């Protein structure tokens, strides 16, 4: 006789959660790297949004902000 669908679904969810948790634990460095990349992307997107709202900078102003000489 077939098992109820609810039991199969609950068992699948539990197995999936365990596999995901184990993978994240084993690949902690990879997860950290991915998270860092995502944060950098958000920061860059925010900088671009802010930059679009301000006036344009001259080449000299950019180099001055970077602490370099053109």
Largest sheet: none
- Rg (CA only): 24 Å
Beta-strand proportion: under 5%
Per DSSP E runs of 2 or more residues, the count of β-strands stands at 0
The SSE order reads HHH
Number of continuous helical runs: 3
Q: What number is the mean pLDDT?
A: 88
- What best-fitting shape do the alpha-carbon axes yield? elongated
Structural class: mainly alpha
Helix fraction? over 70%
End-to-end Cα distance: 79 Å
Which parts are unreliable, with pLDDT below 50 for 5 consecutive residues or more?
none
A few lines on this structure:
With 70 residues, this protein is mostly helical. 80% of the residues lie in helices and 0% in strands.
Would you kindly provide a written description of the structure presented here, covering whatever features stand out?
By secondary structure, the chain is an all-alpha fold. It is built from three helices and no strands. It has helices at 5-26, 28-53, 59-66. Helix 1 (5-26) crosses helix 2 (28-53). The radius of gyration is 24 Å and the shape is elongated. It starts with a helix and ends with a helix. The model has no long low-confidence stretch (mean pLDDT 88).
